């Protein structure tokens, strides 16, 4: 991509063309590899954003699915191996790490979850490490994987699954389903409906109550999904914009060298800062899930 | 950026991973952690008990040592007493034996003296006879003067 851009920038007075390719570069990086029904009726991979959009709901973002499956499988396999050989004796390196991770998750779950539920721990562990590994893909230089895929003839490849709202909403809806399930299980259907309609204004303010509490309830999965998506998407976007600076390379001119140098410095700085965001967002997603489920378990008055 | 069926696939994947984590990751690792916790607690308790036992044992060993010393002192004292007793006894016996030997020796000496005297007496009488015979010449008949000679011998 960047060589195309450099070529474009070399053409004198082609500022508007350069902007065009910049926009293309950005768009290319933000397009998922979508599999679905093409306009001519056959099934295949969309080669443009318009084609992908035209596929409607029944299409799959292959890159998101492959990456998230791969990452989930890798960390699950790691933990599985540790769990299989886990013994009370002297732990080896892997077991040590997994035990440390598990205790860390367990401690933070205990901190915010007061009920007793055998599922919360594994759920929190899965969320944290899955989201963490998906976010971590953001630190791979943005052109490497798409470039490799382009060599293999794959038109698009977004390597960070959490920049795809489908991934974040998929998990958030899963969490929401659990919240609904445990709300009904713990409080009964009547209790849950009562919680939704009888507060804060008592039974005469029922419609207002329902509106407020309903928004409150719906906001949980949406904020969960959008927070993760927004953070990762914005981070990805900034990486793309930084990458554009070096893309404007047009020989050893003052501005070219300056831009190239600033790309290196900026992407280094942003990547280091992004390590924080990657971890923090995974942790926030996990903690909020635990908190929502804790609220689902508790009767509040 | 379109919402599509990826959502559902992701949801299913999420559920599967959570189930897998619950079944094959969380349970065994938590079990191992609990087992280790118990092992460590047991180990600490054992160490505490061992420390206590050690204290008791050292106390006991000091006691035993003290008793042994006492006994040894007693034994030595007894031994010494017995030794003096034995020595005293031996002294007594030796004295008795010595006295006996002395008495025996004295008796023997007396006997020897008596025998020597006897011998001497017979020899003296013979000498006297011989002497007298020489002095008196053949005058003296041994038979005639036998009673005289016997008297002489007795006198000697």
Task: Describe it.
The complex is a heterodimer of chains A (301) and B (156). By secondary structure, chain A is mostly helical. Chain A is 72% helix and 3% strand. Chain A contains ten helices and three strands. Chain A is globular, with a radius of gyration of 24 Å. In chain B, helix 1 (6-136) packs across helix 2 (146-155). Chain B contains two helices and no strands. Chain B is rod-shaped. In chain B, 90% of the residues lie in helices and 0% in strands. The chains are: A mainly alpha (301), B mainly alpha (156). The interface between A and B is large, with 53 and 33 residues.
Q: Largest beta sheet of chain A: what is the strand line-up?
A: 2-1-3
Q: Given the structure, what is the number of helices of chain B?
A: 2
> Which stretches of chain A are poorly predicted, pLDDT < 50 over at least 5 residues?
1-17
Can you count the helices of chain A? Answer: 10
Q: Averaging pLDDT over every residue of chain A, what do you get?
A: 86
Pattern of helices and strands of chain B: HH
Beta-strand content estimate of chain B: under 5%
Helix content of chain A: over 70%
Task: Sum this structure up briefly.
The complex is a heterodimer of chains A (301) and B (156). With 301 residues, chain A is an all-alpha fold.
Label this structure with key terms.
heterodimer; A: 301 residues; mainly alpha; three-stranded antiparallel beta sheet; 10 helices; 3% strand; B: 156 residues
Ordered list of secondary-structure elements with their pairings:
The complex is a heterodimer of chains A (301) and B (156).
Chain A lengths: L1 H9 L4 H16 L3 E4 L5 E3 L3 H6 L5 E2 H23 L8 H20 L7 H17 L7 H8 L13 H33 L8 H42 L6 H44 L4
Antiparallel strand pairs in A: 1-2, 1-3
Helix pairs in contact in A: 1-2, 2-9, 4-5, 4-6, 5-6, 6-10, 8-9, 8-10, 9-10
Chain B lengths: L5 H131 L9 H10 L1
Helix pairs in contact in B: 1-2
